Amino acid sequence: MLNIGISCRVTDAKDYFEERNSLSLDWISLFNRLNFFPILIPNGISNLESFIDNCNLDGVILSGGNNVNPKLYSSNDRLSSIYDIRDKSEFEIIEYCQKNNLPLIGICRGMFILNIFFRGGLSHNIKEHVNQNHKVKISRFNNYFNENKLVNSFHKQGIKKENISPNMDYFAISEDGIIEGIYNIENSFYGLQWHPERKPNDKQTERFMVDIFNKKIK
User: Any bridge partners for residue 161, and if so which?
Assistant: First the structure.
């Protein structure tokens, strides 16, 4: 069983007037299917490197939810659901994984912040990608995915070709030009725009994730 860390979103518990680290139960179901041992990485830890050192992780997932602060990619756009504490935590997680050769997968927002960490950006007001299923064209990792893969979609921001980091390549793109899968083989970093935790029959993505954390992807 692999020990996989996963970042938490920040939710506003209005009835209690407090902010919380949280994670959808869908993720726990996915971890159970993949025989991963989930280790939640909360936002706000003062010494995140020491925390991860003590977790004996085999890899990390950056989960979805919340928006990345546009200031991190030199944008003046105004977005809701921004929590700097999460952006800081996930930047530190990426730095740790890079330093310690630890595989990392970013899902939706997780893909965004991975791209932004490596000096990429985002486009806003993406249409017809919220609670929609659509096909993406796969240009690499075809031993895992169909050439035209049907994926789910829950995002209003997105990565276009002009936004992608110079340190990342893409392997999945939608018909309207939104990049849906990115990678950096050298660092074992991968990003998926779709949500495998919300699609329990997506065996292709699940096998891809397992092989990433077992360092079988080339």
Answer: none
